[in-house]
Structure prediction request, 194 residues.
Amino acid sequence: MLQAFLRDLVGRLCRCTKVDDTMLVEGTDWLYAVGDANGRALLTHQGKYQARAAVPRVAFTDPEVAAFGITEAQAREAGVDVRTVEHDIGQVAGASMHAEGYTGRAKLVIDAERRVVVGATFVGQDVAELLHSATVAIVGEVTLDRLWHAVPSYPTISEVWLRLLETLRSESAERPPGAEPEVAAGPARAVREP
Ligand SMILES: Cc1cc2nc3c(=O)[nH]c(=O)nc-3n(C[C@H](O)[C@H](O)[C@H](O)COP(=O)(O)OP(=O)(O)OC[C@H]3O[C@@H](n4cnc5c(N)ncnc54)[C@H](O)[C@@H]3O)c2cc1C
Prediction:
């Protein structure tokens, strides 16, 4: 409440560029504004934090960490109807083809109201190569229903997308009305906050 009031006050006092929660400038579909320019929080580290939401991030470590979009915490702060889903990348067939004993984890942050992915994080060997698929899904605001038609090749690490969607669908909120419950796929977790 106080945060919303202060944000509104700053917005009125400065000639700021209005952005949505992904830092996309209102009235455009390509321009992002972070830092003081959007007037949301005139602080050094807040500007850097916002920048992370608008660009793909990869830590080229072993394992790699790759992320795009907003985090679960950012989504909650923004008042998004958050749902998250995770899956072990090592459990998909393509991972074992990629490296013996592959371990990794994928997590999606979902806006349950709009039924779109708003954030994605992958940890594991060579997951930077998975990131652009997440970037396209998030920037394109591809709905969960539409994502079902983006069938990954077998055997590839991209199969984790299918497993994530299956896990989501196994939850009651994702099932069509009257549908029988499905068995959740593998070592995965779908979470909907109360
Ligand atoms: C006196 C003062 C004290 C502060 N103390 C703190 C503090 O203690 N802690 C804290 O977290 N924050 C503090 N801040 C706020 C912090 O400095 C800003 O929030 C932060 O610098 C914003 O970063 P930014 O990259 O968005 O903008 P800036 O750091 O302002 O960077 C914008 C850059 O764009 C350049 N630029 C502008 N117009 C153009 C143009 N047309 N073409 C090309 N370049 C252009 C500018 O020269 C500037 O280099 C303070 C600010 C002030 C003024």
